């Protein structure tokens, strides 16, 4: 694997560790407090800190996942060259796009 991709995946894992811990801690708090979805959205709607937190989480996870799936496609499917690069970029951009849409929905967009 290209050294840049190797380092990007390791860096994204390093960034995801605190995101995962905070997210799991938040989920435990929500469950133990008995908060409803409406209560949670009331706390996240319009919150720049939550938007930045989950936006960063999404980008790190998208990069990490795309590089991992690219490596699997290379090893298992034998993809090389442009096909492999296209798959990596498509997966990464797809994951990040879908994730940021979800972040937007819970932090910016109001109820519809």
What does this structure look like?
This protein is mainly α. The chain has helices at residues 3-33, 37-44, 48-77, 81-107. Helix 1 (3-33) crosses helix 3 and helix 3 runs antiparallel to helix 4 (81-107). It is elongated, with a radius of gyration of 17 Å. It starts with a helix and ends in a 5-residue tail after the last helix.
The proportion of residues in beta strands is under 5%
Largest sheet: none
Domain tally: 1
- The stretches of 5 or more residues where confidence is low (pLDDT under 50) are none
Distance between the termini: 45 Å
DSSP summary, beta strand count? 0
Give the overall shape, derived from the CA principal axes.
elongated
List the total number of helices. 4
Second CATH tier, the architecture: Up-down Bundle
Helix content: over 70%
CATH topology: 3 helical TM bundles of succinate and fumarate reductases
Secondary-structure element series:
HHHH
Q: CATH H level: which superfamily?
A: Fumarate reductase/succinate dehydrogenase, transmembrane subunit
Q: Summarize model confidence as the mean pLDDT.
A: 94
**Rg computed from alpha carbons, rounded to a whole number of angstroms:** 17 Å
Please identify the top-level CATH class.
Mainly Alpha
């Amino acid at each position: 694997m290209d050294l840049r991709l190797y380092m990007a995946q390791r860096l994204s894992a390093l960034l995801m560790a605190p995101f995962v811990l905070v997210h799991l801690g938040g989920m435990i708090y929500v469950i133990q407090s008995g908060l409803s979805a409406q209560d949670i959205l009331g706390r996240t709607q319009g919150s720049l800190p939550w938007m930045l937190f989950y936006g960063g989480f999404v980008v790190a996870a998208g990069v990490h996942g795309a590089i991992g799936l690219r490596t699997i496609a290379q090893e298992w499917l034998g993809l090389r060259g442009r096909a492999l690069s296209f798959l990596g970029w498509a997966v990464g951009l797809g994951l990040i796009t879908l994730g940021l849409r979800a972040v937007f929905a819970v932090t910016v967009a109001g109820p519809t």
